[in-house]
Amino acid sequence: TVVIPWFRHCQMERTCRWTLREGKWTNRAANGPFLDVPTAQISAAILSCRPAAAPRGRPMPPQHLLFIDLHEYDVIDTVLSESGCWSNPPRPYDLIDGSGTYFVSAFHHFLKHTFLPANSQDAMRGFVVFPDFGAHRRFCAMVRHACHLPLDHILWIDKARDGTEIEQTDAFHYVDECGAHTMRLEPFPGRAHILIADDFTNSGGTLFGGAAIIRKHCAGASVRVSAYVTHFVCKYSLETVRSFLAKLHSPHPVLDSFFCTDSVAASASWLETEEAALVADGQPLKVNVMPIAPVIAAWIRENPPPALR
User: Fold this and answer.
1) Residue 12 pLDDT more than 70?
2) 213-242: string of b/e by CB count within 10 Å (b at 16+)?
3) pLDDT class of 82 with cuts at 50, 70, 90
4) Which of 98, 137, 177, 291 gets the highest tally of CB atoms within 10 A of its CB?
5) Across the chain, where does the E strand assignment appear?
6) What would the pLDDT profile of 193-242 be if each residue is shown by its tens digit?
7) 79 within 8 A of 41, measured Cβ to Cβ
């Protein structure tokens, strides 16, 4: 079984133009001269290529492939299946538990084992907010089924685009029972637990920005605002991790706690080490890194390789 906890190329589901500005690469220039070629689909196709010669002239053994919480899954699913390389039994993608032919969700594990128990005394005070509609589309059914929340407690924040700049709008939306996009006008009640959730973060800017907007719409005291991402990318940079923690532990923090998995091993390890140093210096513990291993182990148990079925 081949497990790729963080498929880096899933961020590149569309081609985009790159250019150099002041010695740094940026894809914010709409007319940049360099095309981003290795898209998620191409990378999945390359991953599925068989070697030119099988070892010792024998056929390749059957292989399973597993990804965790992909940003986009439908196109990659098609590429992998049409390659004929993988022995995963085909199954339609299940929005309720975030699983499919090649996919499983760590967010589903987090909701069942962490977020739901923390709100078991008063589930109606729980809210889940996504930083954009794309994340809401991927995870709304999962949240509703796992946490039994009403639709107007599963929200997203719209993004406003001005040229290449993207800003979060100061409003919350949900999909009602008729499928219509509706704006939530009521403030968040006192003692609410509000979770901002996404599949990955590069710097945390969207999470902190969303939390600041949430704080402006709270009616009562003792509101808890947490954030979760499966993949703590943080630009693969220790300095970016330190900047993230500085915001998390600021004198007037907008986030009370942060959860992620260790799917991006280096960034998660830096996060735990730097957080431990802050706690030793008297700061409150605000970071929880969830091991990805139980999610992978459960999937392998439920999907044994062909030779073991």
Assistant:
1) no
2) bbbebbeeeebbbbbbbbbbbbeebbebbe
3) very high
4) 98
5) 2-4, 17-21, 24-26, 34-35, 65-68, 103-104, 126-130, 154-162, 165-175, 181-184, 193-201, 224-232, 257-261, 287-290
6) 999 999 999 999 999 999 999 999 998 778 999 999 999 999 999 999 99
7) yes
Using CA atoms, how far apart are residues 271 and 26, in angstroms rounded to an integer?
25
Tokens 């009521």 correspond to what residue? 186
Angstrom distance (rounded) from CA 155 to CA 29: 31
Judging by beta carbons within 10 Å of its beta carbon (0-12, 13-18, 19+), is residue 49 exposed, middle or buried?
A: exposed
Specify the amino acid at residue 91: R
Give the burial class of 292: count Cβ atoms within 10 A of its Cβ; 0-12 exposed, 13-18 middle, 19 or more buried.
buried
Joined tokens for residue 105 = 């969700």
144 beta partners: none
Radius of gyration for the chain, computed over Cα atoms and rounded to the nearest angstrom: 21
Q: Name the nearest CA neighbour of 44 among 90, 89, 4.
A: 4
* DSSP-based three-state secondary structure for 287: strand
pLDDT digits 0-9 by tens, 239-289: 999 999 999 999 999 999 999 999 999 999 999 999 999 999 999 999 999
Query: Whole-angstrom Cα distance, residue 195 to residue 207?
Result: 10
Count of residues in the chain: 309
Helices 74-83 & 40-47, crossing angle to 10 degrees?
A: 30
Question: CB within 8 A of 171, min separation 6: which ones?
Answer: 157, 158, 183
The model's pTM is 0.89
Spatial contact of 132 and 159, defined as CB atoms under 8 Å apart: yes
CB 93 within 8 A of CB 100: yes
Q: Alpha-carbon distance 265 to 283, whole Å? A: 24
